[in-house]
Design brief:
This protein is an alpha+beta fold. Helices cover 35% and strands 31% of the residues. A 4-stranded antiparallel sheet has the order 1-2-3-4, with helices on one face.
Length: 98
């Protein structure tokens, strides 16, 4: 019998992962935030803050992204910021539970 893992393994993301992170954002934001924001606010956040372009830019500005893999699928990601390489601020952590 082929059992699927329920373990999420994290690794540092690269700019090649930005599109997958963006797609995960889209899925999670539409599911979670649809009742907390207006459609216009959600679209603004997805198109600007959580866009593939912005994620790549953040990767080049002391932001480190980590993707969580389960059964070869990206199901989570985290983002941390550091100004000095010593102290890190966790500013995003999303997990898709479906």
């Amino acid at each position: 019998m082929n059992q699927k893992s329920t373990t999420i393994l994290f690794k540092e993301a690269t700019p090649k992962d930005a599109k997958s992170i963006c797609e995960l954002n889209e899925k999670i934001w539409r599911k979670i935030y649809h009742s907390l924001t207006t459609e216009a606010q959600m679209e603004y956040m997805l198109q600007n803050v959580h866009s593939e372009k912005n994620i790549k830019e953040l990767m080049n500005q002391n932001n480190h992204f980590f993707i969580g893999m389960m059964n070869d699928t990206i199901v989570a990601y985290a983002s941390v910021y550091t100004a000095d390489g010593k102290c890190y601020d966790l500013n995003r952590f999303y997990i898709d539970t479906e």
